[in-house]
Design a protein that fits this description.
The complex is a heterodimer of chains A (113) and B (139). Chain A is of the alpha/beta class and 113 residues long. Chain A has four helices and five strands, in the order ββαβαβαβα. Chain A has one domain (2-105): 2-Layer Sandwich (Transcription Regulator spoIIAA), CATH 3.30.750.24. In chain A, α1 packs parallel to α2. In chain B, β2 and β3 form a beta hairpin. Chain B is an alpha+beta fold. Chain B has helices at 17-28, 35-55, 109-117; strands at 5-11, 64-72, 75-82, 120-126, 129-137. Chain B has a five-stranded antiparallel β-sheet, covered by helices on one side. Chain B starts with a strand and ends with a strand. Chain B is globular. The chains are: A alpha/beta (113), B alpha+beta (139). Chain A binds chain B through residues 22-24, 27, 53, 55-57, 59-60, 63-64, 66-67, 70, 84, 88, 91-93, 96-98, and chain B through 14, 17-18, 35-36, 39, 42-43, 46-47, 50, 97-102, 104, 106, 109-110, 112-113, 116-117.
């Protein structure tokens, strides 16, 4: 599991994840991801296009981060999930609590809405 | 019954997850399972084994978990056995779908995913052992 953090225009944090967001993958990035996303307290978009697998530990990390950001008045948006990853997120009803969109542009628009 | 099978004995340690996943994938590779079948199998392996490692044993000693993966004409059947405390994960109530980020439950998600990706699941307590059998459609 790898992650790259950048800053987009409009004071938005962007984290691009690559690899398997399974239990070992979530363990690998847990602290770095939380620091990059929650500690900043800014709106954030997460690029899932490089994520090939997600299981419950990975979903928990996303929920915990989205919750931490919300407590700071900011929003987390996910984009780019591959088909089977999207299916898993959908079955976990994650889209009920975290916006999930197809593209980076839609994610940025969602933050601006 | 009688299809090719892989038997593994795993330690109740998270470090056992990745070698188990790779061994199962190597066993299935000659049968060219679809991406969805592979995803479902990986999900079942991860969620069931993580659960067993976390909850089946109330000491810190090493205990074996036995995994059998059997190929049937239209399914891959995963059978998990451990000698831990009796626990039927199929009887655990699924969490309510979350309505907001503030009340979203973080527990129970693994079982929701297993139920969603598997096509069959049975649990039996036999001779003091937890026996969980989960089927995944072979596509």
């Amino acid at each position: 599991m790898d992650m790259q953090v950048s800053e987009l225009g409009g004071n938005v944090t962007c984290v691009r994840l690559t690899g398997r967001l399974d239990a070992p993958g979530a363990d690998t990035i847990d602290t770095r991801f939380t620091v990059a996303v929650v500690a900043q307290g800014r709106n954030a978009v997460i690029d899932l296009s490089g994520v090939t697998f997600v299981a419950s530990m990975g979903i928990r990390l996303l929920i915990a981060s989205a919750r931490g950001l919300r407590q700071k008045g900011a929003t987390l948006v996910l984009f780019g999930a591959q088909e089977l990853v999207y299916t898993a997120l959908d079955q976990a009803a994650l889209d009920q609590i975290i916006p999930i969109v197809a593209t980076e542009q839609q994610a940025i628009e969602r933050l601006a809405a | 019954m009688g299809g090719p099978a892989l038997r593994l004995q795993l330690a109740n340690d998270r470090a056992a997850l990745e070698p188990a996943r790779l061994a199962v994938l190597a066993f299935l590779a000659p049968f060219s399972p679809s991406a969805r079948t592979v995803y479902a199998i990986e999900l079942v392996l991860e969620e069931v084994l993580t659960n067993e490692i976390k909850y089946a044993f109330d000491d810190h000693a090493e205990h074996p978990i036995e995994l059998t993966v059997r190929l049937e004409p239209d399914a891959v059947v995963l059978h998990f056995e451990d000698g831990g405390v009796a626990f039927d994960p199929l009887q655990a109530s699924a969490p309510q779908p979350p309505t907001s980020i503030d009340d979203a439950p973080v527990g129970g998600l693994g079982l929701v995913l297993v139920r969603s990706f598997a096509t069959s699941a049975t649990y039996e307590r036999r001779d003091g052992r937890n026996c969980l059998t989960i089927g995944v459609a072979l596509g």
